[in-house]
Specification:
Elements: E1 2-7, E2 12-19, E3 23-31, H1 33-36, H2 44-66, E4 75-81, H3 85-102, E5 106-110, H4 111-117, E6 134-139, E7 144-149, E8 155-160, H5 166-176, H6 183-190, H7 226-238, H8 248-273, E9 278-282, H9 289-301, E10 306-308, H10 319-325, E11 334-335
Parallel strand pairs: 1-4, 4-5, 6-9, 9-10
Antiparallel strand pairs: 1-2, 2-3, 5-11, 6-7, 7-8
Helix pairs in contact: 2-3, 4-10, 5-6, 5-7, 5-8, 8-9
């Protein structure tokens, strides 16, 4: 089964053709970083307009690069949520039109579940059956959560951020420090030889106060980064010379350590409560080498394999969308032409 996948949930326009869930015939990603950099973050209107301009040509070029004829495509898969409503609309509209033109089924894909499936992209020798159940840290610019996955279709949310996502916290922290956008790579570069113990920034949710935002989730498996961001602002206000001084690398390293420690601590708590075969990390922040090193240490201490999405499949891409839709055993029911976007779609 060959699936053409479309991903436009935020600021990447992506198209891929994947066979039987794992074999990638072609995948393309157009990033809008340069367009959003002057604003220090994603501007929905700019993102939407870029998708409209780029997607048609990207579909044609990706199919041409695959060497496959159009009639070899068995289904069209598209991300319908969560994400920016205006961006999702572009992809869903294109997916519907393509499915109608090709007379093929349209498959609606949850962006978060596609990120989980990104673990298997680029690894044709790794079968999902080998690793389930597993505990997953899904960490990106828009989402931060802990998930227990028992199968391709059975996922349980254990904890999530109650305010900013980790990637968002890194973006805002980089802005405060004058490091530019996107913040994650900028802070990682600045912090490379810095002292992570230079400033003790808060790790979030360390006190006993309860929060209704956690709902039915276990509060100590949830994340909060808004206090960390505020703490950095106060620190820079009280130490204005740090942005241009030699201690910038130390403050960047300390801020990055606070984000990563918060992630790893909660993952460690979850591992103590859940019997799993492996631990995994997916999403854009999963490209951070310090995070990967910390997760490797944790996995080794627990005598569990660590599965991390390959760097090119950490950020938003369509290979994970097409891969999940065509994975053997995944219940990919055809969606109707009345499919609508769901910006706040849950896991």
């Amino acid at each position: 089964m060959i699936v053409l996948g479309i991903e436009t949930s935020c600021d990447e326009t992506a198209v891929a053709l994947v066979e039987n869930g794992l074999k990638i015939h072609a995948h393309s990603v157009y990033t809008q970083i340069a367009a959003h950099r002057p604003y220090g973050g994603v501007v929905p209107e700019i993102a939407c307009r870029s998708h409209v301009e780029i997607l048609p040509g990207l579909i044609r070029d990706t199919v041409a690069d695959s060497g496959l004829a159009w009639d070899r495509i068995d289904a069209v898969a598209v991300t319908y949520g969560p994400g920016l409503a205006s961006s999702l609309l572009v992809g869903v509209a294109a997916g519907k039109a393509l499915a109608l033109r090709l007379e093929k089924p349209l498959i609606a894909v949850n962006h978060l579940r596609a990120h989980i499936y990104s673990l298997f992209m680029g690894r044709e020798d790794l079968s999902p059956k080998q690793v389930y159940p597993l505990l997953i840290l899904l960490v990106s610019g828009g989402h931060t959560c802990l998930v227990r996955a028992d199968s391709l279709n059975e996922c349980h949310l254990l904890g999530q951020t109650l305010d900013d996502a980790a990637g968002e916290a890194l973006d805002k922290g980089a802005s405060v420090l004058g490091l530019g956008y996107p913040g994650g790579p900028a802070i990682e570069k600045a912090a490379w030889d810095g002292d992570p113990g230079f400033v003790r920034f808060p790790r979030g949710l360390r006190h006993g106060a309860q929060s209704s935002l956690a709902g039915s989730l276990e509060r100590d498996l949830c994340f909060s980064f808004s206090g960390l961001k505020t703490s950095l602002r106060y620190y820079v206000h009280d130490h204005p010379d740090v942005v241009a001084g030699e201690n910038l690398k130390n403050v960047a390293a300390s801020y990055q350590a606070a984000v990563i420690d918060a992630l790893v601590e909660r993952l460690e708590r979850a591992l103590a409560r859940h019997d799993v075969k492996a631990v995994a990390c997916v999403g854009g922040v999963a490209r951070n080498q310090v995070l990967r090193d910390k997760l490797t240490e944790l996995a080794e201490a627990r005598k569990l394999p660590l599965l991390a999405a390959m760097p090119e499949f950490c950020t938003d891409n369509a290979a994970m969308v097409a891969g999940l839709a065509g994975a053997p055993g995944y219940p990919a029911a055809a969606a109707g032409m009345d499919l609508d976007v769901e910006p706040n779609l849950a896991l």
